[in-house]
Amino acid sequence: MTSELTPQEAARGALRAGLPLADGRHEEVAATANHIHSVISTLRELDFGETPPASSFRAGEKDADATL
């Protein structure tokens, strides 16, 4: 498990990306990044088994094998 992003790390990362943060925004950006990371971590743990990729979905087409 990785440690959470600190406000200082968020500021450095934003600066490296060319997106300098205004003073006082470091904590909010770090908190948001940490939340996104926790959601993605949860999604990575899911077992989708035989679920086809989203690119195979065709809106409006009926699936003859679907059950209700």
From TrEMBL:
Basic and acidic residues: bias regions: 59-68
Annotated segments matching region Disordered: 47-68
Superkingdom of the source species: Bacteria
UniProt protein name: Amidase
Natural source organism: Streptomyces salinarius
